[in-house]
Amino acid sequence: MIGLKVVVPVACFRKGFAREFWETEELPPPATCYGFLLSLVGEVDRRRHVGARVAPGLILRADSNGRSAGPNRSAVLRTLWRVKEKKSASGAGGNSRPDFQELLTGVHLAVWLDSTEEGGSGPSLEARVATALDHPERIDRFGGLSLGESTHLVDEVRRLRPGDAGPARAYLLADRGRLSLPVWVDHVGSTGTRYACGDLEPWDSAASPPLDRMPLIAPAPPATKSTAT
Predict the structure, then answer these.
(1) pTM metric for this prediction
(2) What is the CB neighbour count within 10 angstroms for residue 124?
(3) Nearest-angstrom CA–CA distance, 80 and 74
(4) Going by C-beta distance under 8 Å and a sequence separation of 6 or more, which residues neighbour residue 67?
(5) What is the pLDDT of residues 114-134, one digit of tens each?
(6) First to last CA, the chain
(7) Residue 126 in 3-state DSSP?
(8) Which helix (H) or strand (E) holds 80?
């Protein structure tokens, strides 16, 4: 298992069903973290490391009153793209309109990755991430490194250190969890999106979570066709 500290100055982890007002989750879903890790190592096939386990955690920091707190929240008015008019081009006509978006600023995250259950051949995602951190000259990738939207660029990514110990909230699996986050996203529709059920639990950011409570990255099983009798 490898633990990373990730710092993002500005981010929005949009809630899946947010439409008119783009609300954000407190931390990135496992599927978003997985995509970020693939980008870090330069992998373009998102099925390459199915079976990895990824658990995000929100590192808390002291506010002006000395209390542990997460990132600041704000809202901006921006132009958002939709697909409402099929005859219009993207970002034109009714496919473009101003709306509010919620933003997080000063996001400090812990992201834990374990590749024990990966089934593919070749180096695991965990091994490739370690290579990217220790020998970045060996990585062939393109574009900016972002977490969420392409404009939400990552400021820092490194291994978690003993000195990073402190209060955090980790997203861990729970049978009766109160928070469902995607572990696999269907970018064409929604039928193939798969969710995990978990809770945000108090955690020490320098401690690794239990493997069996880390969300598993895997697509939804294919739907079976029923035949009439």
Answers:
(1) 0.86
(2) 19
(3) 17
(4) none
(5) 999 998 889 999 999 999 999
(6) 50
(7) helix
(8) strand 72-81
